[in-house]
Amino acid sequence: MSKPILRMTMVLALLSAAGVAGGLSGCAAGKTSIPTADELGGAVDLPRGTDLDALRRGRAVLVTECATCHRLFLPHEYPQEQWRGIVKRMAGRASLGREQAADLELYLAVSSRAGR
Hints:
Elements: H1 3-29, H2 37-43, H3 52-64, H4 80-93, H5 98-115
Helix pairs in contact: 3-5, 4-5
């Protein structure tokens, strides 16, 4: 292999490695997953009277209902105060029951607070 071709190959390999490393570090810097109820229970003070089962049900609604129509919005993408209005507006569209909407709102509010 000639020196110019070898040099070009090495440059391309280094650029590729730098791109992958940069991409991975960017992903690691931001939260890219939705926390489980158990993670939340250990990370934040839960509102009085909240049980982990309500958080589990809320997370399940997010994953099984919300994400069927649009991308999965991560809880930390909105402040906890905004989730109430979002859930209220979207619950009818998703045909959520009252308890489902309440569990979803609780999960999103607690998760949002934990992620900020």
